[in-house]
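Researcher: We plan to redesign the surface later, but first we want a full-length starting point. Tokens attached.
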């Protein structure tokens, strides 16, 4: 076994153990967060092992009966989360458009102009590419009436998302590989499902498959690269793709988090605690005896002739944080898609738990929450935000960090404008409460501003506190303006003047029932939102999907000028919590959202009560919403469900594309196109099975 480095928990800035248990005392928030690279592979290995031992011990100590007895009972109730919430002109050519291509079309709904976000659908007006099941389906989509599948490519693993760059499609897939991870609580090592990527106990690899689609009828795979880590997200700007991967810790074989069950052991709590202690000691021996390659596998590249070459790494490209964080890895791999010859992806890795990702063309921000070993009164949540420079097309470089009070909802909680980072957070604080050692959680919300100063993102200013007792449900920053929506029983929309970064100022507030989960700009004076209508009395039986138009031309007096309720209480849209499913076409003033519902008109056919379609609305800032109609995919939805087990994912409409006067509804089972003047009469339909691997 290797000798312990002596740095141990001191590397993490951790102090002595608590008198109450073997878990180290909660550490204070590191107010000057930073990342530090490793000077050697030995230092990297020691740090990873120290982090893993801490993570393992803190998890297992909390499973002891003595831990729970002091906190309300032996497995006396569910664990409370630290943030108080559990881990959001009709008409046209009837023939389907001309052959030269549409005058205008929609693409992926990206947060930042000029920065493409990876998705499982990509479109350039004349071609639509769809990832479904294990295949890439290549469509010729123009003229619209001639929509057809030209070809398909079977991909290894479980395809997640892709980019379209000229005649090059780059697909990111999760490949399940053999893992020697820890035994599950039952004592069995969990395997990887053939239907999807590995779970907590499995090891995942991200595969990048490059496909030349110059000839739609005969696409050619031109590159295959494998990197350790599960796929999280990706951005593309100026020909450079930035792939973000996350990897939960690869525990060595034999590590166990719970002893084998026996009635006698369970009833003898003293003996159970000794057995947990024995397992912890054995786990630490296994962790410290493992080589660096156990924690950080190398990548590889498959050459056209089938041979494989190793893609190594530089230990100095790994970084540790000076703040408490759970063990894990976040890697940003950079690929220059315009390079004439293959270049090994440049990688920078943070040894930390992953979080939200936001990127401009020049910088990428990663957020990771402060780690409390256990919840207790006096804690206030914080998030560490790390900035990477993207000026080089083949690599990302760490430049600065910030410590931000609170936690972020999603990528739209961050925005950079003229060198200033704006962040909207919900700040949760635990306050003492008699009889509750964890304390109760109180929340408030703020907007913060930061600017880079050396290796720090220095706070410039902060807004006043917003909506105490609520949390943020959506945020959007546009130039010198900002918008935040919070929710408890009504939806306050807050407007901000951000023209003076040192003094972000709330200037207006509007309360309406329900909440908006996504905010989209319509010109400079209006917001288009999707969310849920909830009656002011909180009765969720009266809920429905809600579209809203807000006039924010007078920031001090925002007004909700139009609303549209969609569907019944059972209605659902992926656009509620995935902005890429929200498709607004400014050239035509059209909005399309995927929609599913249950009509309750049960007639002996379970699936016949379901609705699966693309809903289309005309949006006018003066007149509001006008329903245009729907493209139904119910037939494909039913066919799949008739022939599959009920637990299999159902291929409802998930995305849409618009080109001139034509609307394309895209599901995992096919694509259907209609003229906007008659959505109920499709011009063409393609079909495929998401469950086919051939």
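Model: Full-length starting sequence:
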């Amino acid at each position: 076994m290797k000798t312990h480095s002596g740095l141990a928990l001191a590397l993490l800035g951790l102090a002595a153990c608590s008198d109450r248990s073997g878990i180290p005392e909660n550490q204070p928030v590191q107010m000057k967060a930073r990342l530090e690279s490793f000077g050697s592979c030995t230092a990297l290995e020691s740090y990873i092992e120290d982090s893993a031992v801490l993570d393992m011990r803190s998890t297992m100590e909390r499973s002891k009966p003595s831990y729970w007895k002091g906190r309300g009972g032996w497995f006396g109730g569910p664990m409370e989360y630290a943030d108080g919430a559990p881990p959001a002109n009709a008409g046209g050519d009837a023939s389907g458009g001309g052959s030269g291509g549409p005058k205008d079309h929609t693409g992926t709904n990206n947060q930042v102009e000029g920065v493409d976000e990876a998705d499982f659908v990509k479109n350039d007006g004349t071609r639509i590419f769809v990832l479904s099941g294990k295949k890439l389906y290549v469509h010729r989509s123009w003229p619209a009436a001639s929509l057809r599948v030209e070809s398909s490519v079977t991909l290894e693993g479980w395809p997640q998302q892709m980019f379209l760059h000229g005649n090059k499609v780059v697909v990111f897939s999760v490949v399940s590989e053999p893992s020697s991870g820890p035994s599950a609580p039952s004592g069995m090592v969990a395997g990887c499902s053939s239907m999807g990527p590995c779970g907590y106990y499995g090891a995942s690899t991200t595969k990048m498959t490059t496909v030349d689609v110059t000839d739609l009828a005969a696409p050619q795979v031109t590159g295959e690269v494998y990197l350790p880590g599960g796929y999280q997200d990706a951005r593309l700007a100026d020909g450079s793709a930035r792939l973000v991967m996350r990897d939960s810790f690869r525990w060595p074989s034999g590590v166990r988090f719970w002893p084998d069950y026996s009635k006698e052991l369970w009833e003898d709590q003293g003996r159970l605690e000794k057995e947990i202690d024995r397992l912890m000691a054995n786990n630490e021996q296994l962790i410290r005896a493992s080589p660096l390659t156990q924690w950080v596998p190398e990548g590889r590249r498959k050459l056209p002739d089938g041979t494989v070459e190793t893609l190594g790494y530089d230990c100095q490209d790994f970084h540790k944080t000076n703040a408490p964080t759970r063990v894990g890895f976040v890697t940003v791999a950079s690929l220059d898609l315009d390079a004439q010859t293959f270049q090994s992806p440049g990688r920078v890795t943070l040894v930390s738990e992953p979080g939200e990702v936001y990127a401009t063309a020049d910088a990428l921000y990663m957020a990771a929450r402060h780690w409390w070993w256990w919840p207790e009164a006096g804690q206030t949540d914080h998030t560490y935000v790390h900035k990477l420079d993207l000026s080089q097309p083949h690599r990302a470089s760490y430049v600065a960090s910030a410590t931000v009070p609170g936690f972020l909802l999603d990528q739209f909680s961050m925005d950079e404008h003229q060198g200033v980072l704006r962040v909207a957070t919900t700040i949760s604080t635990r306050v003492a409460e008699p009889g509750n050692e964890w304390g109760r959680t109180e929340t408030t919300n703020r907007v913060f501003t930061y600017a880079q100063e050396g290796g720090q993102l220095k706070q410039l200013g902060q807004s006043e506190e917003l909506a105490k007792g609520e949390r943020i449900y959506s945020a959007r920053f546009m130039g010198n303006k900002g918008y935040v929506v919070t929710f408890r029983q009504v939806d306050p929309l807050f407007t901000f003047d951000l023209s003076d970064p040192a003094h972000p100022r709330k200037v207006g507030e509007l309360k309406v029932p329900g909440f908006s989960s996504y905010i989209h700009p319509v010109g400079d004076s209006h917001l288009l939102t999707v969310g849920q209508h909830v009656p002011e009395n909180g009765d969720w039986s009266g809920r429905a999907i809600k579209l809203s138009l807000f006039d924010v031309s007078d920031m001090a007096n925002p007004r909700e000028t139009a609303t549209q309720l969609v569907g019944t209480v059972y209605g659902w849209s992926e656009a509620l919590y995935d902005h890429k499913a929200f498709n607004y076409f400014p050239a035509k003033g059209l909005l399309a959202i995927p929609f599913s519902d249950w009509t309750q008109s049960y007639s002996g056919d379970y699936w016949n009560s379901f609705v699966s379609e693309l809903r289309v609305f005309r949006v006018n800032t003066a007149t509001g919403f006008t329903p245009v109609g729907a493209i139904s995919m119910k037939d494909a939805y039913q066919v799949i469900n008739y022939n599959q087990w009920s637990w299999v994912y159902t291929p409802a409409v998930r995305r849409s594309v618009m080109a001139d006067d034509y609307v394309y509804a895209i599901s995992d089972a096919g694509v259907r196109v209609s003229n906007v003047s008659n959505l109920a009469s499709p011009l063409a339909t393609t079909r495929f099975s998401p469950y086919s691997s051939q």
